[in-house]
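Support reply, case 0932

Customer input (verbatim):
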Amino acid sequence: MNQPTQEPSTTPAPDPAQFADAIREGNVELLEGYLETHDARETTRAFCELSDSDQAAMLSAIDPAAAAEVLDEIPDVETIEAVGLLEPETAAAILHEMPSDEQADVVAALGDTDAEAILSAMDPEEARQLKELADYAPDSAGGLMATEVVSFRSTASSDRVRRQLRKDVERLRKLDIQYAYVTDNKGRHLAGVLRLRDLLLAEDAAPLSEIMVRDPLSVRVDTTLDELVELFDDHAFLGVPVTDEAGLLLGVVSREAVDEATQEQAASDFRRSLGVVEEEVRSMPTFRRSRLRLSWLSINILLNVVAASVIAGYQ
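Our regenerated output:
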């Protein structure tokens, strides 16, 4: 089916100089107005062309939720650099607005000093969970999962769960929720999956244990990326629960996260084949791009010289 044609945007692209002027003037209203009225790609391009100091000042000035949206649009390497320039309290407030899997990616990529300073500025419990996530291998289920999970005890009634969902609607709107999960009454051991359709149609007094899907497919926290790819190829799931060795529910790894990790792995392999050992973006200075490639290209040049010398000797 053909998609409807969208009218091209008539809003002019934001001028990086206007961004910079608004930052230096402390005009937060103007900055947030740009973010609301311009296309995300245009504002991303303008943001990446700002100096490091202007980027840090802008992220510090606007609302943390708006800053998190800006960072979500820019390349990962730029996000890490920008967060590293912020004061720990500001960085902690922005990370708080990000999904847990993205938080872990940023913290894991930062230097130890910056990461510890940001974690110290966060809520202790949130910092503990984030540190645990950052310690997982990035190409494992633990490194790809999000800990924002909607779960209920198996003895809870359908009516009570529906009321709880309505009460939590503002928080749930921010999450990409596809399923709810059911745990036993002894703790957070995964007991079943709750399809929202079944919840809506269930009798008010029916406990979740009667309407949940028992023995759901799950993955261990150390499941590799290759195994996850194979699992999602074999099953039409949008997400799969992640458990530890004891069966405790830790989070959910989504098909989207696995697809993104696979694409990043392929892109990384391709960059390495070109001698690029770190992600490169258009806004990087020429000297830095050259430095990133120098060690790898130097080895290639040396090997080519050796190969040419051997060939010449046999000739």
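We compared this against your earlier run and they match. Two observations from our side: Strands lie at 151-153, 180-183, 190-194, 213-214, 219-220, 239-243, 249-254. The first helix runs from residue 16 to 25. Please reopen the case if you see a mismatch on your end.
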